[in-house]
Amino acid sequence: MDSNHQKEIAALRNTIEVLEAENAHLSERAEEALLLGLVAETIQSLTDPAEIVENVLERVSILKNIPYTACGRLVGHELEPIAAYASFSDKTGVGWPIQINETLLDEVSHGPYVTTNPTELSADFEDTPFHPAVTAVIPFKSQFFSKGLFLFMDGDGIADRLASMLFMLDRIVEMTVSRIDNQYLMRELARLNKELESRIDERTRALVTANQKLKAEIADRKQSELALKNAHERFVTVLDGIDAHVYASDLRSYEILFMNRKMKEDFGPALVGKRCYREFRNEVSPCKICTNSRLLDEHGKPGQVITWESKSPITGNWYMNHDRAVNWVDGRMVKLRIAIDITELKRVEHEKEQLQSRFQQSQKMEAIGTLAGGIAHDFNNLLMGIQGRTSLILLDLPASDAHHEHLKSIEAYVQSAAGLTKQLLGFARGGKYEPKPTDLNRIADESAKLFGRTKKEIRIHKKLAPELWTVDVDRGQIQQVLLNLYVNAWQAMPDGGDLYIQTQNQALTEYKAGLHQLEPGRYVSIKVSDTGIGMDPSILSRIFDPFFTTKEKGRGTGLGLASSYGIIQNHGGAIEAASETGSGSTFTIYLPASKRTVAEEPHVSQKPAQGSGTILLVDDELMIIDVGKMMLERLGYSVDVATSGSEAIKKYTEKRTDIVILDMIMPDMSGGEVFDRLKAVNPDVRVVLSSGYSLSGQTQEVFDRGCHGFIQKPFTLDALSEKVQMVMHKA
Amino acid sequence: MEKPPLTCRVAGHEIAYHSAGEGETVLLVHGITTYSFIWRRIVPLLKARYRVISVDLLGCGASDKPLDLSYSIRQHATLLKGFADALELGAFHFVGHDVGGGIGQIFAVRYPEAITDLTLINTVAHDFWPVQPIIAMRTPIIRQLAMATLDVGALRLVVRRGLYYKDRLTGDLLDRFWAPMRTRSGRKGFLHFADSLNNRHLIEIEDDLKHLSVPVLIIRGDADVYLSGAIAEKLHRDIPDNRLFRIATGSHYIQEDEPDMLAEEMMRFWAPSGSPLYET
């Protein structure tokens, strides 16, 4: 082999060595890359930090043939174990405890470091085949482990080998710590997530619970709303069902807040929101009678119910209002009014009051009448005496006598006084003398004519109903009543005016009749109206009171209307007055219709006629006996007298007379009883009743039982003559 | 469903094994990276005529994996003697693969009376084992083995290289290789097993082999990339009574490549002269 050849071979060997070295280097790098890949792959599948470290340590140990690897948390100079891997032992805790001295700590504070100095780092490998000679120390900081060290220990003392790996080991440590921190953060994240989830769960549960509660509440509320709606409907139904006005209005603003059906019907359907005083009372400002200010107590709380009456200007009806304050649904204080229509009640009450008043009036009239009747009776008896004596004197005195005129005047005064007592008796109870079937039109007509002749300034308008029903009346009395009314009208029209006289047939129903305290049935009415000054209610209420007069003293007796009242009452009729100040007055008389036909007045001679026959004059008053006996005897009759009922019966039984003139009122026996006893003696006995009272009650009854006539004291000679003659000649 | 292994306590350690069939005892001893599973295709072929025992060496399979004990070939030979004695196997046919072949050589030198013959399949021997240098685990194969403990991909590469028929690397086969690596103790045991290998013990018996009194069958997979063909050739030259049987289609894990050929050759080897099997 030549030298060139040897050189070539040497060169080739050199080249091969270089290539092998490069190859080894490349292999090393490839293996490192592989190791990093393996480590990365392994730790990716793990989560537990200690397990990650343990696996990394094992892989590094195996692949880089490093017998002992460890990782610990650095606490002072001590390394607290996290994990370790000893390829030579299957025991745990190999190598620990591990202490680091200050020098090494200082070194590693600057970064990875390889030490061969056994004083810098002490570890316990007793009872193992391992004797560390070189240690690569790699510091780390971790969120999970705080700060610590990775240790890689080799036993063969070749520092270069570990030094050459340092960069790679550092990367592995970095990767591992990153993974652990990552895991830590992931775990933290997971924990926070879990916490969040748990809070969300909690909140969700709370929400679900709240939701359920809400649902239950909604259901409850719906139920309540339904109940409320039902209650409201019931409430409205009830309120609408009431035929009274029910409304609510704001106490302050007067705004109408509620109206019931009846209210809407009577006032209008759409008034809610408007002002009550405007809509309900046509006012432009709150009513003076408004109760709003009185509905609250001193604390501003709802007070007492105020009940009052008012008349609505809208409906024209009367209402009983019950006002009270209530708390409205929105907290406002409102007035609740319940107004009950009392118009009909009012009317009935008014009528009742009228009835009451009329009843009281009639009671009063009756009492006064009784009194007046008594006075008139006694007074008539006295007048009878005066009249009789005067008449007898005049019969014997020639007209030329100086006393003739005085006596005539006395007679006239007596008649005037008798007129007065007549008035009194007319007013008094039972003042009907001689009722006869009468055409009221005729009396009205005659009286009007009589009145019209004296009062020319009064225009008389008559409206007399044709075919007017007959009435049983004492014509003189009725005429007197009508004249009283005319006079009254004339006095109300001092400057003249119109007088209306109207007659009418009236069929009074129970109701209408009741208003006048009459029995229902057929009546004839006569209405007298004037256009005079009228009367105010206070006068109107006393118009029929006896001795009540509005005229000045001396111009009226105050008995005219009172006697008219009594006369009509005594006829079973009624008289009423209606008047308003300035609008004239109207008097209406109701008289019961009769079925009888109108009787013609027999002709009565004006002069006392001489008669003959026997007469028994019965009277307990001696004055009447004296005067009557003389008057009858002057008229030509044979007269016997009796001063009591028993005496009269005795005398009549002993000696029957043609006529008995019988006083109605006697102490021992009444006229009626005497009449019956006389009838028992002689059924055809002719009796003329005589009384200071008018024909009424008992007298009327006796009269109706078959008396032939009635003569009221005081009677004139002419009247006595006429009556006696009429009875004497009756068939 | 495979039966769970039987165990036998030897020198304070549990040794796992499987036993099948009746007849003369055949002890099947695996090498590195494998355990008793490597015989699963062979056992069914043998058990009809033989009592076949496949053992898990200490640190492998289901046997104990102490780290304070050397897993040297001589140690394994000692333990296997204890195992054979414990099970009272009597004279048996020793079959060793890879490191198991190294153990067989020591076993045959030290306890020739305990075996009737020795079969060495792709075995380590002399100083050729496996590829220099191995002790510091800085040889590529050892690195690969180390890596294989951590990375199934690396292990797959190792196994794949050891097969002639690459398609026989099924998921099931890989799972069996990978099973010990699933646990830290399995990984440590495996690495300790590798670390403890020392060809010093084989070199020591180099001369003894030349005087070996038992017949030896040497089977060489010619496609084995891990062990040199020179090993088989040197053994064939040194051992007095031996036969070299070469299988061209066999790689390192020849049990997976050609189980039938292996079984047939072994049974022919074990068969008495004049038997039909021998004739073929």
Task: Provide a compact summary of the structure.
The complex is a heterodimer of chains A (731) and B (280). In chain A, 47% of the residues lie in helices and 22% in strands. Chain A is an alpha+beta fold.
Give a description of the structure.
The complex is a heterodimer of chains A (731) and B (280). Chain A has 731 residues and is α+β, with helices and mostly antiparallel strands. Chain A folds into 4 domains: 186 residues, 2-Layer Sandwich (Beta-Lactamase), CATH 3.30.450; 100 residues, Beta-Lactamase (2-Layer Sandwich); 165 residues, Heat Shock Protein 90; 115 residues, Rossmann fold (3-Layer(aba) Sandwich). Chain A contains 18 helices and 24 strands. In chain A, the strands form 4 sheets. In chain A, strands 4-6-7-1-2-3-5 form a 7-stranded antiparallel sheet. In chain A, helix 16 links the parallel strand 22 and strand 23. In chain A, helix 2 packs antiparallel against helix 4 and helix 9 crosses helix 10. Chain A is rod-shaped, with a radius of gyration of 71 Å. The termini of chain A are far apart. The mean pLDDT of chain A is 83. With 280 residues, chain B is α/β, with parallel strands linked by helices. Chain B has one domain: Rossmann fold. In chain B, strands 1-2-4-3-5-6-7-8 form an 8-stranded mixed sheet, with helices on both faces. In chain B, helix 4 packs across helix 5 and helix 4 runs antiparallel to helix 7. About 3% of the residues of chain B have low confidence.
